[in-house]
Each structure stands twice: as structure tokens, then as C-alpha cells.
Specification:
The structure holds two protein chains of two kinds. By secondary structure, chain A is mainly beta. Helices cover 0% and strands 53% of the residues of chain A. The chains are: A mainly beta, B mainly beta.
Chain lengths: 116, 114
């Protein structure tokens, strides 16, 4: 079975400082991994995805994540936080080889607050 | 840029009533999904749909739920007799192909059951 654990429910950083949102996954198969962002009263937007190519994945808005199989981790980072980054972030796993059954398994989310 | 759309944005209904949530996936996509997010909880998979049939469904997706692609454009989720615990944000998603391919999400429908 697949699962995702987001290690922090809430992270608070100052504007201009680095962001680290932690995610560990469990998967019996070859996983695809995603980070989605949800701004208040908005839908779910894909930040980045890992699907078996480069282990360091770059996404939108300066975010990146590194797939570490040995640690079963897929932490999200950004060198310098911006006020507009304040949102809910979800780490998500999917089974890459599941045929046509490609449901996404979601973490509980990490709420990122950015202080001026 | 093509996007997934959902209507209505907010639906209020009485317990026991039927509701239909509507979605228009991206036109060349083949896989369709419904997820829900109860307030304060994680996003949960409900059902996936491919080639005019359900590919997979979760244990949440019981006999009260059904999905349909009535006209090759819309993708609907019907709840036959709503319960208070069905109150949630419902997200529709679509993808070109399964697996590692990105699922594109609509803005969601907030369902409130009174």
C-alpha cells in the first residue's frame, strides 16, 4: 500500500529565508511523486513532479524537490520565501506502473506561513 | 491554457436530497477522477474513470455515489441521498494518460449538506 507522511503540519518562515517542507512516502511500487499547492479558496495547482527521470526536480515559483529513494523522502525546498508562497502544500504519491488505476494518495498537508 | 472547470462553485442542499456535481475535463484527456476534501482533512480519492467505465473506486464511493460521462464532454458525480458527512470540497481532475502524467484539477465544488 502507498502512503505519504508530511512531517510538519505547520511551518512558519520569514520572507527571504529558505523553505523546507518535509515528506516521506511509502510505496511497494515505483512511485511517481508530486507536490501540489492550494492557496486560500483556490484549487489545487501542481508545483512539481518526479516520475523517474532526474532525482532533483525543479518546479514553478522557484520550488524544487529531491527524490531520495534510500530515505524514501521527497522534501520540498525554496531558497528564499516570498509572501505569496503562503499556502497549503500537499505531498502526493502515485503508482507509476498501476495500469489505468492511477489514483493519487495525499499527505495531510503542510500550512506554510510567511512572515514579513 | 486549457483547464478543468467545475460547476457549481458552491452547492447547498438538504440532507437526503440528490446532488449532481459537474465537471468539464480538458478536451484531449482520457482519464477522469473525483476527489474530496472534508474541511481540515486530507484530500481523498473517490473514483477514477476511463473508457466509459470506472477504473477504480475507494471505499468511500458506495452505492450512494455514481459517475457518468453523459455527452463526451461533461463528467458528473451524483450523490443520491446526501448525508451531513458528505459536506466537503469535491475536486474533479483529468489526465492525458495515467501513472506519472499530471492530473489537472478543477477549482472544486463546495458541497454543504444541512
Amino acid at each position: 500500500a502507498q502512503s505519504v507522511t508530511q512531517l510538519d503540519s505547520h511551518v512558519s518562515v520569514s520572507e527571504g529565508t529558505p523553505v523546507l517542507l518535509r515528506c516521506n512516502y511509502s510505496s511497494s511500487y515505483s512511485p511517481s511523486l508530486f507536490w501540489y499547492v492550494q492557496h486560500p479558496n483556490k484549487g489545487l495547482q501542481l508545483l512539481l513532479k518526479y516520475t523517474s527521470a532526474a532525482t532533483l526536480v525543479k518546479g514553478i515559483n522557484g520550488f524544487e524537490a529531491e527524490f531520495k529513494k534510500s530515505e524514501t523522502s521527497f522534501h520540498l525546498t525554496k531558497p528564499s520565501a516570498h509572501m505569496s508562497d503562503a499556502a497549503e502544500y500537499f505531498c502526493v504519491v502515485s503508482d507509476r506502473n498501476a495500469g489505468k488505476n492511477r489514483k493519487l494518495i495525499w499527505g495531510l498537508g503542510t500550512s506554510l506561513a510567511v512572515n514579513p | 491554457e486549457p483547464e478543468v472547470t467545475q460547476t457549481p462553485s458552491h452547492q447547498v442542499t438538504q440532507m437526503g436530497q440528490e446532488v449532481i456535481l459537474r465537471c468539464v475535463p480538458i478536451s484531449n484527456h482520457l482519464y477522469f477522477y473525483w476527489y474530496r476534501q472534508i474541511l481540515g482533512q486530507k484530500v481523498e480519492f473517490l473514483v477514477s474513470f476511463y473508457n466509459n467505465e470506472i477504473s477504480e473506486k475507494s471505499e468511500i464511493f458506495d452505492d450512494q455515489f455514481s459517475v457518468e460521462r453523459p455527452d463526451g464532454s461533461n463528467f458528473t458525480l451524483k450523490i443520491r441521498s446526501t448525508k451531513l458527512e458528505d459536506s466537503a470540497m469535491y475536486f474533479c481532475a483529468s489526465s492525458e494518460a495515467g501513472g506519472g502524467n499530471e492530473q489537472f484539477f478543477g477549482p472544486g465544488t463546495r458541497l454543504t449538506v444541512l
